[in-house]
Amino acid sequence: MREDTEKGIKALDQQEDPCSLEEGDPKRMNMEKNRVGLIRTLFESITDSRRVFIAELVDECIKEMGAPPCKYALIGLGSQAIGLVTPYSDLEFAILIEDDRESNVTYFRNLTHYLHLKVIGLGETILPAMGIKSLNDFHSDDPAKNWFYDSVTPRGFAFDGAMPKASKTPLGIGKSPTKPASELICTPQNMVKLLEKDANLYLKEGYHLALILGNVSLIHGELELVDKYNNLLNTSLTERVSSSQLAQVIVSDNEARFESKEVTAHLLDVKKEIYRLPTLSVTYLALFHGITPTTIWSTITSLERVVGLENAHHLRVLVSISAEVRLRTYLSNGGQKENMSALSSMQVGGTSSEELRRVFYYSNKKQLLRYYHTAMPLKRFILNLSKHHMKNVPLCLYDTSPQVQAAIYQRLCSYQEAIGYYEEALQMRQKIYGKSAAHPAIATTLSNLASTWHDLGDDRKVVHYHEHTLAMLWIIYGQNSTHPDIATTLNNLGSTWSSLGDKRKAINYHEQALKMFREIHGENAEHSHIAVSLNNLGSAWHGLGDKREAINFHEQALQMRQNIFSDSVAHPDIATSLHNLGSAWESLGDYRKAIVHYEQALRMRCTIYGETAAHPDIAASLNNLGTAWDNLGDKRKAINYHEQALQMRQKIYGKSSTHPDIAASLNNLGSAYDDVGDHKKSIDYYQQALKIWKIMYGKSAIHPDISASLNNLGLAWGHLGDHEKAISYHKQALQMRLDIYGDSMAHHDIATSLNNLGAAWSRLGDVRKLRAISYYEQALDVNRNIHGVNAIHPDIATSLSNLGSLWQDLGDVKEAIMYYEQSLQMKQKIFGEGTDHPSIAASLNNLGSAWGALGDKRKAISYQEQALQMNRNIYGQSAARPDIASNLSFLGSAWEDLGDLEKSISYREQALQTWRKILGESSVHPVLAISLNNLGWAWEELDREKSISYYRQALAMMKAIYQGDSNNPNITGIEENLQRLINDE
């Protein structure tokens, strides 16, 4: 059956897709009719094959049990009855019997058990569906008694589950404290009575038996019993059970489905979100108009006199698309795994859940568009019909208006198409209401345009549209009014100004929005609007440098969202809060806590959108994991995450797109490659990022992103040894930051540029080191202006450390130690006296270096060993990081000075191994050559052959690095050592 279905789908793929034709093409409707016919034929074949298969199983059971004691009819319910069953669908059925004396009922009850065993033997029944009380007691109020989840058994052909709202089998629903037991083994008369009883009792409890029993088909047995049942059913629906009452239950029980947003980029449950709407809608329309539903195709034909031929056609197309998509999803996922995504597919490293892997990536966007062109107006019509709002309004089940098109394309991440349609919708609405009119529909379209330009990263356009929206809303609702749309627009403006770098303006807008939302929902209310404002305030304070305030707002937002949506639910807003908390903790230097939050956000986003989906939120998680692992010292892992993020962003926005997220990924890759010593590759990435920023903001624009790229290029050129070029870039970055933040200079970025200029000047000789001191002192003053003269803050501690480093370079080691000790004390107050923190480890390292320069090797070793142990506690005992390698190198040198060559060699060999892990085993790099040279020096007295071997390796590497520069002191120094050792032999 499944093989035949696969062949049927392949045959369907050979046919031209009607959706490939343009809207309005005269051939399209005929092609749609033809495809509907093919889908109908395929499902009729599946339905009949399944009927024959079940009948054969029943005959096998009867052969073992003996002949039935009376006439019977095994009747199919649900998708079997409406003709949309799949090879993986649950078996929902009942048994009609001629005579319901107890002995007869017992026979068919046993037949059902026997059949159940045969179906279980097929291996596709999950354990919870069997209702084993020790695993899943569905009638208990204790959650601990309904605990088992079967993630192993493939879910396919099985009895309908034993859950209270399922149980559509002859065994029915079991007895509970509030309901008697209810078997579906009855005479036609009693089955109708059961339906009538259910219409008044169980429908209110979400048990859809009356609706299910309203449409049956023969699977095996006597057709005359089915005919008799249907005749009695029609009489009942006319005289005792209102079919319109049953129709109303469909809407009230599925109100969320009818009112939900249309297509999204989230992972779709294809059964609940694609398939059920058409089947429920057709059933609703039939019952509402007094038509008894049969197969869905026949029911639509019966509806032609009510909805018209053209709308009946649209209903058939809607049903055929939903049935085809569900069937393709099941076949692709190998069972009743309903996960489907309309996004592009990309493999994401780091997650491996089998449940997430079973996702069907459906690339036929045009077919989904066709589905929603009918689904959207159908939802609106049924909701209004059920509320008696539009009885006399002509029904039109095909809406391709620009607003609908735009909404679908935006949610599918096709942003350029969305903007084109929103602009068309704006022009259309302005034509209707007046070009200068203030109307809610026009305001909505302006807001939608802002939202889509935000998706594309053009924040100037976003501000333009949001400001237009806000001005219009003030006119519509009043300048001093409190309205959710006004508060939302204020929030959006805050977020956009934050992206544009004006954090104070952002905070002002977010605070206005938060105040308004609390006035609307209540001061202490928990509402998603309030959570959004809290989240945005956290992000803005983070941007201003107040990380503790940022964490405070983000934690409030996360707690509120978990309370609203449940902390066990995968929701985009919860993922956003986790992501933002990770970012705040990363800024505070707690990289492990940051990674925990980022990984939680990534897992949740993969659950929402699909593990291999190409989605901006997943790309953001990958990007931030790359940054956090970079800070933790695992540069290779960092590069891997950043490359995944870049590839995903290029897939979303286009490889040659000038999008801020692509520029950010290029920038981060530049930083990671700079850290591993590939400075030329780093500069290439930084320059690509700078090019994008200048295209986005303008060649002569002044913007924080451009200044950050200039700053990074300065760092990379400095690492490459071109300090003059480094100074040039840092000066450009500083000037731009002064232009952005003002001459008061009270901003973290200005302090950063001053620090970097100090570092660059310090590398240009002793005379220029005095200029470096001036920059470092200015940076210290800026940090004290920002945080307070007597404040204890990481930025002030960093400035003190930088001044210590420079005084040490100038030879005033005691002055250096004074600054280092002030820095260490401040860091210990900030992070805690006994805390392992990277910044404290750096200060211990600096003090070790300074005491070593003063000649106190014992004190130097003590500080360096503390630094080494702290770094290993932070990053792991076997972690490979530059700071750990530097600790090991220093300790090797210090123990050599104290005459302990064995200890010296041990530390230096560890340092070499660490650098090789960082840079790659076959890498050619100056730091590796220096490590090899140091080992050559250390082995001279203990093993001359080993010493010569290390010197030769070091020399070969230096020559490879400085090709054509044979007089380079790094080369000549090793040659002298090697020649001296050879001559001594």
From TrEMBL:
Gene3D superfamilies found in the cross-reference section: Tetratricopeptide repeat domain (1.25.40.10)
Keyword check for Calcium: no
Cross-referenced SUPFAM superfamilies: TPR-like
Keywords: TPR repeat
Lineage: superkingdom: Eukaryota
Keyword Glycoprotein: no
Domain Protein-PII uridylyltransferase N-terminal: 41-116
GO MF: [protein-PII] uridylyltransferase activity
Chain positions of TPR repeats: 487-520, 531-564, 575-608, 619-652, 663-696, 707-740, 797-830, 841-874
InterPro entries per the UniProt record, alphabetical: GlnD_Uridyltrans_N, TPR-like_helical_dom_sf, TPR_rpt
Identification of the protein by name: TTC28 protein
